[in-house]
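One example copied in:
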Amino acid sequence: MIGRTQKWDEGGGLGSGSSSIRRFRFRRGRCKPGAGKGAAKVARVFRGEGLHKVDAKGRVSVPALFRRVLELSDPNWTEGLAPELVIVYGDRRRKFLEVYTMEAIDEVDRKIARMKRGSPERRVLEQMFNGQSLPTSVDDTGRLVLPAKLRQKVGIEKEAYFIASGDTFQIWNPETYEGTVLKSTDAWLDSMPEDFDPVTLLPEDDV
């Protein structure tokens, strides 16, 4: 159960202190020198989950492991600066916030740019990723500020549930996550044979 999930990053704190968001420089570029192709691939993958308190101003600590990925996936980041990110909240049907690293959102932007200009499909994606999104950063105390509009949209109040999702991570109301995603996953697993191993879903290596 999510309610029993151990919290990471207890040192992140939810004490006093203002959010200091630097001016965003959406300059596209490669990984920092020395990172290498292999390092870039590793840096983009989030792993783990965490349940964190949200204060009255919408500040919530980002799991430490997630912060490291955000740093390594931001071409502009250097030691002492806040890593940038983009929160995609989408339309009314979306019940969670999805956080993209700068590398991940750049990949999405490039794919959208290859689509036919003016097509309904491109317009929908532009609305979602360009319009229904928020560029922001992690502050110097390791916290993310969630505006009231976003918290109200997905029902986040006193706690937020973080869950890794490949090169993005999602932020949920804990009860919503349990009642939708976990419930659906458990139902699907229950429909499988008793000895079913999810590892078998992985594709075989190319020969």
In short: Residues 36 and 126 are 31 Å apart (CA to CA).
